[in-house]
Amino acid sequence: MHQYIDQLENYVDKDITLKGWVSNMRTSKTNIFIVFRDGTGFVQAVVSLDQVGQEQFELAKRLTQESSIAIRGKIIRDERQMGGYEIQVHNLQLIQLSEEYPISNKEHGVRFLADQRHLWLRSRRQWAIMRIRNEIIMGIHEFFQGEGFVQMDSPLFTGNAAEGSTTLFETDFFGEKAYLAQTGQLYGEAMAMAQGKIYTFGPTFRAEKSDTPRHLAEFWMIEPEMAFFDNDDNMDLIERFVKHVIARIVHRCKTQLELLGRDITGLENVQQAFPRVSYTEAVKILRGEKDVNGRNAIAVQEEDLAVANALITAHKEDIAQRESAIKAGMKKGERRYNESKILQLRKEIAHAEEQCRNIPKWIQSAKNFKDGEDFGASDETVLTRVFDAPVMVYNWPSAIKAFYMKEVEGDPNFVKGVDLLAPDGYGEIVGGSERETDIDVLQRKIKEHHLPMEDFDWYLDLRRYGSVPHAGFGLGLERLVRWACGINHLRETIPFPRRYGRLYP
Ligand code: 4AD
Ligand code: MG
After folding, report:
1. Cross-strand bridge partners of residue 415
2. Which residue CA neighbors atom 27 of ligand 1 most closely?
3. Parent domain of 301
4. What is the DSSP letter of 173?
5. Where do the H-state alpha helices sit in 368-490?
6. Average pLDDT by consecutive 10-residue portion of the chain (505 residues)?
7. Domain ends where: 73, 96, 119?
8. Domain boundary residue among 96, 123, 148?
9. What residues flank ligand 1, with Cβ below 6 Å?
10. Is residue 333 part of a domain?
11. Of 1, 5, 49, 224, which sits most exposed with the smallest number of CB within 10 A?
């Protein structure tokens, strides 16, 4: 029997066998240090000549990155080591000697890595992200099951366009025109009338022909739907739900979050109350016409810009000083330290320079925002910057939202929709609403959206037979993973991303 790295705490000072891969290695005369991974984690394996003998030591020397091996050795607790343990190997078996591995430890371009996605998944950062994704999925089920929801699945082939006709993938269903589902919601509404509170959790498809960091063509969505909920109940649920899932990963994914360099203060702030602002208020805040807790959105951007400029100047001076000190001569270790520090400073400068290019554009866009339009990515960044926790924006202009959202009583220009915007530029992660129950209004809206009435006949039945107030929302799994992990692009949040221009591997 072999054991796993994530169980090492049970085997301190004991001999065990681990099976896995060589992630990285370095060799000295009498020792070979292997960064060994087995899927559950990473550990340093020390192969020393006096422990394994000449023959196995030679074998170890020939190992290549990603060779598969079985090792037997003693587990030592060592705080200084990655993960807190080390294995001192006394037996090594080769399973397969890997050919030269295309992904090395130097930096690669994103295109190259995307082409190597089937291998890239093995690298430490990707490993951490997938572990967090898994923990989020567990947290989602735990939350909804705990609240008495029933998980039900909606079809992926559908005749209904629910989220606008511009992002439909059309397909042939035995000679009939069908679409890949953009949402499971309409079916979710039918299921909620049967079970009270349900959630769907499945893949959804949108032909987003834009290459942005926050759009995939295939993504996973969690869509709860609740009978007898209004939009306030809906917002309460969204808040409890997001708090639950984030608390779970902050608690259970410390190693992975640390590995990603995720600053978790932002995630801890999620336990505060989520501010709720109407769309109309949000527009005023965005344009800088209304302050929040003494903070003005435009002024905050101007401050951020000044901070970025100051950082660039200070870092450049710092780099110049380190460079001249290196030139003047220093010990090897000290030089290495300074060189890696310089690299780090350069990265931070590049980031600040990007901010200096972006912020003036964001400010312009925010100041000139036209009431009634949808928020763009930069508007969401500017708006959320004045809040500490995620923000809920409710009561949206009807014209920019889906046909099924319930009109605000007495003000048909607005609907009872809600978007949850994550802070720090991560933007929309949830979209939801109370649903229209008036069959006449629904029929009018279906016409206004140029949708074929006959395809929605079954949906209208839900308003004919025991119609009740109800609400629900959709959370994009990858958007949540992106925010939780603090990473820029959705391509790293799903094992094999499908997006515009990317079908391989
Ligand atoms: O706001 P959306 O379009 O809402 C719906 O689909 C509703 N039917 C949900 C409901 O009320 N049951 O999408 C919901 C969420 C977004 O907030 C976003 O997190 C995610 O789905 N999303 C995407 N994620 C990745 N790539 C895309 N192209 C996405 N489009 C939406
Ligand atoms: Mg939306």
Report:
1. 396, 407
2. 215
3. 280-367
4. E
5. 377-384, 439-448, 457-464, 477-485
6. 96 98 94 97 97 96 98 96 94 98 90 97 97 98 98 95 87 96 97 98 94 95 98 98 98 96 92 98 98 96 98 97 94 92 95 97 98 97 95 98 96 97 95 98 95 95 98 98 97 97 95
7. 96
8. 96
9. 163, 183, 185, 206, 208, 215-216, 219, 221, 223, 428-433, 472-476, 478-479
10. yes
11. 1
